[in-house]
Amino acid sequence: MLSVMGLLLLPMDSVACRGLLYALFILNFVLVCQLILLQPLVSASGGKSGNAAELFDKVSESIKVKHYTEALDDLNAAIEADPNLSEAYLFRASVLRQLCRYEQSEGSYKKFLELKPGHSTAEKELSQLLQAKSALETAQSLFGSGNFIKSLEYIDKVVLVFSPACIEAKLLKVKLLIADKEYENAIAESGFLLKEDENNLEALLLRGRAYYYLADHDVATRHYQKGLRLDPEHSELKKAYFGLKNLLKKTKSAEDNANKGKLRVAVEEFKTALAVDPDHLAHNVHLHLELCKVLVKLGRGKDALDSCNEALKINEELLEALVQRGEAKLLIEDWEGAVEDLKSAAQKSPQDMNIREAVMRAEKALKLSKRKDYYKILGISKTASAPEIKRAYKKLALQWHPDKNVENREEAEAKFREIAAAYEVLSDEDKRTRYDRGEDLEDMTSGGGGGFNPFGAGGFGGQQYHFTFEGGFPGGGFGGGFPGGGGYEFHF
């Protein structure tokens, strides 16, 4: 400075003097700026321990608020300024470990240990790093093999303990929760990720998928759409979004056709919708139920039973599926099963009159199933005319007449009684009407509570019956004409 002042004292014109002063000002300004900019690095490189402490405090604050990039930038700058600043390596290794950037972290730990051999904290953290790295690899392998529960244990108990900021591990955890059908937890975990970074495409995809599997399709759609606005070409988001649209379209078409009475078309469309995503249980339970209802209307009892069973397999408390399964069992004549299902449904909803009426129908069907089917015995339809009933009776009475069935007389007598009882009821218009209504028939036959007995007093329940057939019977007519003749005569 004295030399400079000396120069100022030399005679010079005013212009030269002003130029010299200006140059000195610029020189001093540059020096001051360099000192200001280099101060943190000089401090960190061993200038003043207080400034190094300030740097590490700043890094710690950045880590607390999860500004890991800022923390790493500060540490990298300090290391660049002083490659022997050991504490910066330790800090950087710790941040990288938390982010599960294991290769870089391991390198920083080793560099620190070169500068500070035998440092217990660094050796312990390096061991934790290696455990976390191995656990993450194991968790990924277990996920790939379908062992979701064990994989989740490695993530929760090892990886996220030693690497709490590991986005890769957190995303894997959400995938594991979805795979294990823990959709509520998956939504919560992916929500934390989106709070840290609302534009995390993978988190948006996974959270949308969790809502999708809860059948909250509107919210799922919003997540997919947000992700596609950020990246219109994201393949997984596109697949999820258009897959959902396709499912909803097919479902609506099936429901519309069912409502319009196009039942056979609806059946095929419900099956197509079910094939879109067999794992979407929360939605498929609805599809199985609607398919069951349509099949019941079509009278396809066995198919309807299968569909209702699938719905109840997903949700055993689904009341409507229980009712429809009861109706399906009625169609396949599983009377006891129908009563059981419908009574169970009535207990769950005692005020539902429709279910109570269904129980009454099932109980009546069960009761009717336990009585003899006279139409079936005579081999005629329920709409058979009186002449058709008589012809069927004549044919069977001749076929099973005990005198004609000497070798199996006991069986023939039992069959003959059955045929006669059927004819007695169905040939009487009043008795037939009551029978068709499902009334008790104990007093309908001439045998009273014991049933109709064609072998009773009078030859046939107190009456004489004579069959007359054109051409007669081999062996010469009825009335003892059969071998071992029992003397039965039938007159009409």
From TrEMBL:
It holds the Pfam family DnaJ. TPR repeats lie at residues 201-234. PROSITE patterns: DNAJ_1, DNAJ_2, TPR. Keywords: Endoplasmic reticulum, Membrane, Repeat, Signal, TPR repeat, Transmembrane, Transmembrane helix. The keyword Zinc does not apply. The chain crosses the membrane at residues 20-38. The keyword Protease does not apply. InterPro entries: DnaJ_domain (IPR001623), DnaJ_domain_CS (IPR018253), J_dom_sf (IPR036869), TPR-like_helical_dom_sf (IPR011990), TPR_rpt (IPR019734). It is found in: Endoplasmic reticulum lumen. Its main location: endoplasmic reticulum. GO terms for cellular component: endoplasmic reticulum lumen. Residues 373-439 form the J domain. It comes from the Eukaryota. This is J domain-containing protein. It comes from Arachis hypogaea.
